[in-house]
Structures are given as C-alpha cells and as structure tokens.
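Why do we bother with holo predictions? Because pocket geometry can differ from the apo form. Keep that in mind while you read this record for adenosine-5'-triphosphate.
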Amino acid sequence: MEQVVLVRYGEIMLKGLNRRSFVERLASNIRRAVSAVGLAHIEMAQGRIFIEPREKDYDLGEAVMKVKNVFGVVSASVAFKTGKSRSDIAMAAEAAARAYMAANRPLARSGLNVPVGPNVPVGPSISGEPLPPSGEYAFKVETKRADKTYDRVSPVISKEAGDDLLAALPGLVVDVNNPQFIVYIEVRERAAYAYTDRVAGFGGLPLGSNGKAILLLSGGIDSPVAGFMMAKRGVEIEAAHFHSYPYTSERSKDKAIMLSEALAGYFGAFHLNIVPFTDVQLAIRDNCAEEFSTIVMRRAMIHIAGILARRESAQALVTGESMGQVASQTMQSLAVTDCAVDMPIFRPLIGMDKNEVISAARSIGTYNISILPYEDCCTVFTPKHPKTKPRLDEALYQESRIEGLSGLLGAAAEGVERLRISPGGH
Ligand code: ATP
Ligand code: MG
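The structure, written out:
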C-alpha cells in the first residue's frame, strides 16, 4: 500500500491574502529539506502538504525527521494512502495498526494484560504474521472528514473502521477512554489516509517569509538560540562571527562553524561570515579608557554587522543579548549600542533568564557545542571594570581617540571570509 508523509501547518492558515504564497514557500522549504532523502513529489492540497515518494525504499521516517525541523510545520505523520471505500479504509487502518504494533509492545492494563517483560516479543512485522498472545493493544479510531461531500459522517467511519480492525487483528481491544494508540483516519477530497503517530514540529512561519537579518553568532549559548527564534518567525538568517586570531584560537572559529552546521539543520544551507576583528580590538585596547572598551567594541561589532547587512540585503541585526545579563547588556549599554547602526537590532532573548535559554539550547541541540571550552574574542579583551551605565557622548569621545577607526571597521567588513554552511556539515 502506498505510504506518504502528511504534513500539517498551523498559523500560516491565518494569513489571509498572503496565505497562498506562504504555503508555497513552506512547500518549497520542505522540498529542499527532504531533497537528500530521495525522489518525492510534494503536493499541496486542502490545508495539508503531502510528500509522496517516487522511488522504492524511500525512507519516510527520515523524511519526517527532516520535515519536523522546517519552520511552519506543526506536525507530520507517516500515513497509508488509499481509496475512500469502506474496504479501502479498512485496509489502510489495518496497515497503520500493524505498523504501530510492530514497533510498540502492548501496555499492561489493569486486569486485562499479562505484565510485559523485557523478553516479550514486540509484535509481528507488517508482513502480517500472527500477533503474540502475550498482551492486548487497546485502541480507538478517530476520523476527520475533510471531504464534506463524503456520504458517511465521521462517527460512522470510525465505527466501521473499528469493527473492521477488530475482525482483522486479534490482538486488539477497543478502549475509547484510555487507548494505547489511536488510528487516525482522514477522508480528504482525493484520497483517504490512515496513521497512528504524529511527530511535533516547531510551528512558526516559513523561513524567508519575513525578511533577512544578520545574526551575530558568538561561540556562546545565547546567540544560536536567538538565531533559531528569529528564523522560526520566518526571518532568513546570515551569520557573522567576529574572530580575533591569534588572540582567540582557530578552534573558536571551528566552534562557530559547528554551531552554524547545527542551525543549518533548521535553516537549510546559509552563509557564515568570519570577520577578522583583531586590528579593531587592538586599536580599542590601545586607545580607549579601559572601562569603555566593552561598549566601544560592542558598537564596532554592530557597525560592521550593519555594513554586512547592507551588502547582503538584510534589513536587521540579531543578537543573543538579555536584559542585565552582563555589563554590556544593561539598558544604558543597549541604548548606546543601538546608536551604532541605523537598522533594528532584534534581541529575542531579552526577557529570558539564563536557565530558560539553556533549556532552549538543549532542545535545539546547540548546548553541547556551546559549552566546548574555547574562548571567544570578548573574553580575551574583557576589561576588569566595564562601565555599566555608559553615555553615548562618552562612547563617541572614546571612539574619536582611535585614529582611522572607520577605515578599520570598513577593512574588517571587507576582509570577511564568507562560508557556505550545510546541515551537519555535509
Ligand atoms: P553568547 O552566549 O551568545 O556568547 P554572551 O552572554 O556571552 O552571549 P556577550 O559576549 O556580551 O554575551 O555577547 C552578546 C551578544 O553579542 C552575543 O549573544 C552575540 O550575539 C554577540 N557576540 C558576542 N561575541 C561575538 C562574536 N565573537 N561574534 C559574533 N557575535 C558576538
Ligand atoms: Mg559570548
């Protein structure tokens, strides 16, 4: 029986006139995300997107794992696709139930089941061998009738499919209140589908539907999460990492690359700019009062990122700053930093506590890379007592003491190494 991946999307349904272009963008992002899995047709129909394999041995499970990371996707299922007659639906429901039972042991239910131990076989394969006698699977059927012209209503379809399943598979019992698994049936315009599992996605909006921004990506915990959050709202990302070789090692650059590769699992391929920052850092260290070096350096980074943004047609910058986290992230410091550029700086972590950021970093898989122990350029040049409430006129005065500062900033932007990053580094 034909299997497909059924993809659900949420919020973009609400976008009125833009809906069609949003859905098309989502479908094309999905197409790109699953292109490495194999040949497949991507179909948009009735508020769903379907991935329909066009070759034998297409790995639908792998396609689900890729598609769940595409922003805009709410959830995805491997589904059996079939005709809409009762017997077709019964066959698809049976195939879905068998696949579930092959992959999951029956759960012990009070009074009904023999307890399940480690040696109990996990059930028959989809090839249709008989079930082991050791336990029963409690199930129910839920039906969505998206084809409103279909002659039977949802409860009837569920009842019939439930009866057909009971007749076909001896290991099943119905329990509508506490089922171990649910067989979902969707009767749609062109076909019917049956599945048991939904894999959750991140929601959000399709990447590229909300402009483009430069993400200032350090080697730390915060900035990858910040980039993820903006990308989840549809913002295309290009990253910039400031590197102060030889004061920071090549490994800190490698770390920025590894973080980018992890993010590319969500963004798809994107660009990382390695900015040579040593000359700027040294000029700041040698010419500014030490307590102002942090704010002047922050402004220098932002200024250079602004140049890159204009060059790459990005409209905004993104950082991992959070209110009050360190001296450069006080209200005053952030305000003075903002004045270094004439475009918005988005700081999606602004109201988050560090432990909230850490749990987000864990869940997107960047945390273990971020905690690798390589210093970034900020720590090497960090003053002992940075000013926590700098004023703009003070920062400007310190900058005026650096001869040729704007030339140095321009040269750093000019000297970037622009790397194309692919998911997982492949
Ligand atoms: P993170 O955990 O992201 O490194 P942080 O708490 O260490 O953040 P800072 O070092 O003050 O904070 O940096 C604040 C933000 O500035 C970072 O989140 C990042 O967006 C940007 N940033 C800092 N250092 C660099 C760098 N070397 N390259 C690019 N961006 C940087
Ligand atoms: Mg940092």
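The longest helix spans residues 293-311.
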